[in-house]
Amino acid sequence: MVLRVQQLETDVRRLNGQLEEALEALRQLEAQTLERYVDIDRRLAAGNGVGGSTGSTGEGGSPSGALSEANDSQKTVQSPNTSPAVDAEAGEEAAYRAAYELVRLKEFDDAVTAFEGFLAEFPFGRYAPNAHYWMGELYLVITPPDPELARQNFKLLLDQYPADAKVPDALYKLGRVQFIKGNRQRSREYLDEVIREYPSHAAAQLARQFLLENF
User: Which domains does the chain have, with CATH numbers?
Assistant: First the structure.
């Protein structure tokens, strides 16, 4: 009996070790993906100097579209006659910029905290969809990763902002997250939806590749 218990304890430790290794491999893979997204996002937004903001989605499924009003907003903040609404918009933009910069610097834990604070202050602001998208990405690269919180943020984006430009990317990421969680059928449904609804989108290309490699 004692030997049996000892064997079970050994098996549990071995399985826990394998789980930790798998989670770390997952975290590293998603971190590489996030780094690629940020790099694409930075290049697409270089002309305007703002990354990860609202707009169309570009190559590789990365949320792109720099703030088209970035320069105007900066000029407006400097004006002594700005309205409270304009000041609030400028404050939201500044808070979003600060949080996104932490993503770019790979300070992922701090970025999570910053985006949480941003969403608490601007829950329905102009950049809320982007914030939820990046929160979803970040929960897959922190240590340890949290696929469920990632799923919640991507799903919230779909439910509250169904017309947002990042919906195809969020659908693709939900497919990946459900695969990570072991829900292969649900994963395939999300991936098929990306391909069906957005066939020419970069996210659909990624979904096709993921299906070929994993199903």
Answer: 20-214 (1.25.40.10)
